[in-house]
Amino acid sequence: MAKHLHLDVTGGIAGDMFLSAMLSACPELRGAMLDDLRAAGVLEHVTLSIDTVREKGFAAVRVKVTTASDAPPTSQWRDIRAFIDGSGLDAPVKARALAIFALLAEAEATCHGVAPDEVHFHEIADWDSLADIIGAASVIDRAGVEGWSVSALPVGSGRVKTRHGIVPVPAPATAELLIGFEMFTDAGQGERITPTGAAILRHLAPVQHLVGPRGRLSATGTGAGQRQMEGIANILRVLVFEDGTRAPETVSLIRFEVDDMTPEEIAVSLDRLRLTDGILDAGYATAFGKKGRAQFAVTITVRTDATAALIEACFAETSTIGLRVQTVARHVLPRRADVGLTRTKTVERPEGVTRKAESDDLTGVPTLQARRNLARAAEAEHD
Fold first, then answer.
1. In the predicted model, what is the mean pLDDT of the chain?
2. What's the rounded Cα separation, in Å, for the pair 272 and 206?
3. CB neighbourhood size of 22 (10 A)
4. Residues 335-357: what's their mean pLDDT?
5. Is pTM beyond 0.85 here?
6. Helix 15-25 × helix 127-142 angle, to 10°
7. % helix / strand / coil in the chain, to the nearest 5?
8. C-alpha to C-alpha distance for 27 and 310, rounded to whole angstroms
């Protein structure tokens, strides 16, 4: 059964809030998460409490981590990496925990102009953050989720105190991790998204929809943060959709017209643009423009986080001097590649499964009839 989780960021998102909301929505994950924290050696140095609370009138789960007074320091990235690498965590959970911490290290390194291995995490690498991140890695891996989405993110305002002094909200590492996410300003004061919360979001790579996710809502969960805010419930809500729910992706459409390139030039340009990371599709239609000139109307579909790079590539690879960018919702059907007589694309459609042989694998077969016969045999092979 397909499962999609939507994060509704009301008060904000931090590591403990994400963990709280996930355990509220999926309480069956609690035992495995505690086992993972035990296998990692984290519970030797922290005490974890999981309580049901009321936050501004909303029932919520609140996870609180208390660090033992004699817990050893954990602030160096190389120490954290060695600790997790040497733990008894299952390989998938270990890989996720390392990936989230690596995102934090890279963001801090960028902000401070040092190599990632030289990063000293300070306030985000205490034992409570280790518990939050390993716990998050556990619930993410064991939830069996096919897709994630997130609402627009509250920016917050004011200043936050760090080991580097007073810095504006969002903190530099948080801002680095949130590049590409849609954000908005509301009345909330202080830090709304912590570096750990931002790293978890970056790891999940959720889509942000023009419209909300669709499908059958099977469960909800609410996680509460530690901080009280005036007029805003400091909560993170999780909505669980099942039964084949497929929320749309948010992508960018880049469009432009050129009337001073030859067909050979535009074909080469599009081939080169298709090699750019993040591009999903590229094509053109012929039309007539001003003064009756023949022109090529180019349309490129690209991931939203790669839009800026594709714009620069379009200016470099074509003669256009202007283009238009649109953010749209993209619906895709689940598909997979099967290998046999040829590569075959298998697509799950509402009315059933369809298969199509990859045409590139048929080019070496002489005669049209032989190619058709091979395609039909390849498509029937996986029935």
1. 86
2. 28
3. 30
4. 83
5. no
6. 40
7. 35, 35, 30
8. 42
